[in-house]
Design goal:
Distance between the termini: 112 Å
Strand content: under 5%
Order of helices and strands: HHH
Number of domains: 1
Shape: rod-shaped
Largest sheet: none
Structural class: mainly alpha
């Protein structure tokens, strides 16, 4: 007598596709450091937060929360560097104008 064939159990999790917004956020964050300093950081922040909403939904619609977080961090770092650069630029002119007026 033959044994009946038992169906095999598959023990795997369904993988979610990576979020396109998270990938765009990461790429924009990298591009903000290299090609598009201001625009890249703004795009990285906006798409990063949109991707985090997508990846943290219940149930999640996509994966890529780490990519979105990396894009957000790079966006904030770039904005911080921009603010520091503008402050240094302004201080340079304040001290340069002050030095010129004291020597005359």
């Amino acid at each position: 007598m033959e044994e009946p064939i038992q169906p095999q159990e598959t023990n795997y999790l369904a993988t979610l596709p990576s979020s396109t917004l998270a990938i765009v956020s990461l790429v924009a964050g990298i591009a903000g450091f290299t090609i598009f300093p201001v625009i890249g950081s703004i795009v990285a922040l906006i798409t990063g937060y949109m991707a985090r909403q997508e990846t943290r939904a219940v149930p999640p619609k996509a994966s890529g929360d780490g990519l979105a977080t990396a894009g957000i961090i790079m966006g904030y770092v770039q904005i911080g560097l921009l603010v520091v650069g503008i402050c240094c630029f302004a201080l340079y002119f304040v001290f340069a104008l002050g030095w010129v007026s004291t020597n005359q």
